[in-house]
Amino acid sequence: MLVLTFLLTAIYAFTNVFGAWAVIRRKSYVAALFMLAAVVLVVAAAALISAIPFTRVLLAMGLLLASLASYVNARIVIGKVFWRNHFIRALVAVMIYLIALAALR
Questions:
Q1: Mean pLDDT rounded to a whole number for the chain
Q2: How many separate domains does the chain show?
Q3: What are phi and psi of 26, to 5 degrees?
Q4: Nearest to 13 by CA among 41, 47, 34
Q5: Contacts with 77 (C-beta within 8 Å, 6 or more apart), sequence order
Q6: Where are the alpha helices (DSSP H) in the chain?
Q7: Helical pair 2-23 and 55-72, crossing angle rounded to 10 deg
Q8: CA 46 – CA 29 distance, rounded (Å)
Q9: How far apart are CA 40 and CA 65, in angstroms?
Q10: pLDDT tier at 20 (50, 70, 90 boundaries)?
Q11: For residues 36 and 86, what is the distance between their CA atoms, to the nearest angstrom?
């Protein structure tokens, strides 16, 4: 279970890196928010395979930052928010978090 959570978190971080790459020329602060989320997610992924006591907090912060970055990107850069896409992204984040909780017990 921890390996699955690690892989899902790493994929989620890679998605944020791609988001940062896509918007770096238009809005650099949105790209910075994407990269911040990616860094926190990578640290959380590394914490999943070690014995760091605040792994859940890191993972939750990374997932929330990723959702925030996605929303800010849709609102500011794209100009239109498709709530269905953000709802699906939030469901994926909750799924990753719940798998992590089950794996850490």
A1: 93
A2: 1
A3: -85, -55
A4: 41
A5: 23, 26, 27, 30
A6: 2-23, 28-48, 55-72, 83-104
A7: 30
A8: 26
A9: 8
A10: very high
A11: 19
With beta carbons less than 8 A apart as the criterion, state whether 31 and 18 touch.
no
* Residue where the block lists tokens 């994407």: 34
Confidence of residue 70 (pLDDT cuts 50, 70, 90): very high
Domain carrying residue 93: 2-104
CB 96 within 8 A of CB 62: no
Average pLDDT over every residue of 41-46? 95
Please determine, for residue 2, whether its predicted confidence score (pLDDT) is greater than 90.
no
C-alpha pair distances (Å), 25 with each of 14, 44, 62, 85, 102: 19, 28, 23, 23, 40
Structure tokens at 10: 């790493």
Q: Which helix (H) or strand (E) covers residue 41, if one does?
A: helix 28-48
> For position 34, what pLDDT does the model report?
96
3-state secondary structure of 64: helix
